[in-house]
Amino acid sequence: MDRMRRNKVEHERQTHQVLQNTPLDLIETGKSLKVQAERPHLVSLGSGRLSTAITLLPLLEGRTTLGSGGTDIPLQGPGIAAQHCYIENQGGNITLYPCGNQCSVDGLPITKPYRLTQGCMLCFGQSAFFRFNHPEEAQRMKSMLPAGSLRVNTVKPLPSGKKNKQTKNINSP
């Protein structure tokens, strides 16, 4: 019983330390809630259809290990090794090391160290999906865009009744 209590206290201490090292902004935007972090992090896209939580996983300076056994970020699912891979943060440069295990970035298999960039999609094994966010890099990228080009929808709709010659109706023969 005493061991379980010590594990719980240690877990709470580690959680408190992560929260201190990962300042988060919670922004209410009407009917949604926006969570923003200042430091590089992974956003878990769940571990299957039954997952309902959103998890932010900070990538602190140094090495963060991922896998199914005793790692900094525990992973579950088919194709996950005990020590699956690690991610290294060296002064804001974030690199994924696959350790010979199944890893992909933006759908492409990765077999060598790979520098992660803002917004890339990661898959470990066959079903552990994440998005990589690097707020500082995203801000630099935004600052390079011409003014007004940050609009979400840059495609103008056609006037009703007119068809674009390049648009195909997938339901027609």
Automatic annotation (TrEMBL):
GO terms for cellular component: basal cortex. Residues 65-125 form the FHA domain. GO terms for biological process: regulation of microtubule cytoskeleton organization. CDD domains: FHA_PHLB1 (cd22713). It comes from the Eukaryota. This is FHA domain-containing protein.
